[in-house]
Design a protein that fits this description.
The structure is a single chain. The protein has ten helices and eight strands. The chain has 270 residues and is of the alpha/beta class. Strands 3-2-1-4-5-6-7-8 form an eight-stranded mixed sheet, sandwiched between helices. Strand 7 (231-234) and strand 8 (237-239) form a beta hairpin. Helix 7 packs across helix 10. The radius of gyration is 17 Å and the shape is globular. The protein starts with 5 loop residues before the first strand and ends in a 9-residue tail after the last helix. Bound molecules: NADP nicotinamide-adenine-dinucleotide phosphate (NAP). Residues 11, 13-17, 35-37, 40, 63-65, 88-91, 109-110, 136, 138, 191-192, 194-195, 197-200, 208 line the site of NADP nicotinamide-adenine-dinucleotide phosphate.
Length: 270
């Protein structure tokens, strides 16, 4: 019997992720929706099934502030047939907030956890190729990383940590695109637009677009031809990230430090 193929969408319980999940449901896509609250996931699953009763919706619950919990939760779905991984979940922590894993919260939630789960799901993406990885970054990404400080877990907190995490996401996307080219997995990252979600409103005020437009960049990335890979997308077109992100040695350094920070995870590309 033919198995269903899924889009895995992190941070489906609010903002850009929720709006995109509704759009994918309307388009008839099966989804594994991720959130950190079982109650919110239950409500979103019901909403999506009402939107389209024909699709299959599975859920994965994990708080990215806890790397072991995240690893266990995503390993439990690693045998599903996943054709697209969309790393969208994210946060902004004001000041230096350390997780129990010892990392600055924004760096862990926005970069380390997506790095971990992408590697956990890589075999499924390889088996279901041509497949896609889409990483939600931000135009607020930094233009430079002090790798020594990052490796030694010296974090600035607040806006600095947010912009650093978003540059790490871009370096990760570009590095993976190179590693996975022969495997027919395209990897792109994007700025979703400035959207009035709780992340924006709580930290910058309601200075963005209405959330009804929140899905547009994810849909744009999803619908791109498979041969488009290693790109930064913004404003419904291929755009340019900070020059720092295109330097291969910076991509390698960020990748190695992320691996070091996650020591113990299996990340061989088979
Ligand atoms: N909004 C903008 O203008 C803007 C601009 C540039 C980039 N972005 C990026 O877009 C992505 C989505 O953000 P958004 O604006 O849609 O924000 P949002 O409305 O706050 O949604 C964030 C999503 O991530 C989940 N999340 C937050 N912390 C988490 C954690 N510790 N563990 C697991 N999941 C967690 C949230 O779960 P809950 O529902 O439980 O809160 C929610 O599903 C983020 O990566 C953000 O950096 C947004």
């Amino acid at each position: 019997m033919k198995k269903e193929k899924f889009i895995l969408l992190t941070g489906s319980t609010d903002g850009i992720g929720l709006r995109s999940a509704v759009e994918f449901a309307r388009a008839g896509e099966n989804m594994i929706i991720h959130g950190r609250s079982k109650k919110k996931l239950f409500d979103v699953k019901n909403l999506l099934q009402k939107e389209n009763p024909k699709i299959v919706i599975k859920t994965v619950c994990a708080d990215f502030e806890d790397l072991n919990q995240t690893k266990t939760a995503f390993e439990a779905i690693a045998d599903e047939d996943i054709k697209v991984v969309i790393n969208n979940a994210g946060c902004f922590a004001d000041g230096v907030v350390l997780t129990k894993d010892g990392f600055e919260k924004t760096y862990q939630v926005n970069h380390l956890a997506p790095f971990l789960i992408t590697h956990i799901l890589l075999n499924s993406l390889i088996n279901n190729a041509p497949s896609k990885i889409i990483i939600v970054s931000s135009m607020a990404h930094a233009s430079y990383i002090d790798f020594e400080a990052l490796e030694n877990k010296k974090f600035a907190g607040g806006y600095d940590a947010y912009s650093l995490s978003k540059l790490c996401s871009i370096l990760f996307a570009f590095k993976l695109a190179g590693l996975l080219k022969e495997k027919e997995i395209s990897v792109n990252c994007l700025h979703p637009g400035v959207i009035n979600t709780k992340l924006l409103i709580n930290n910058w005020g309601a200075c963005g677009m209405d959330v009804k437009n929140a899905h547009r960049m994810i849909m744009y990335a999803y619908n791109l031809n498979h041969n488009v890979t290693g790109e930064y997308l913004k404003g419904m077109k291929i755009s340019k990230a900070a020059a720092f992100a295109y330097n291969k040695s910076n991509q390698d350094k960020c990748y190695e430090i992320s691996k070091k920070h996650l020591k113990g995870i299996k990340i061989e590309l088979k």
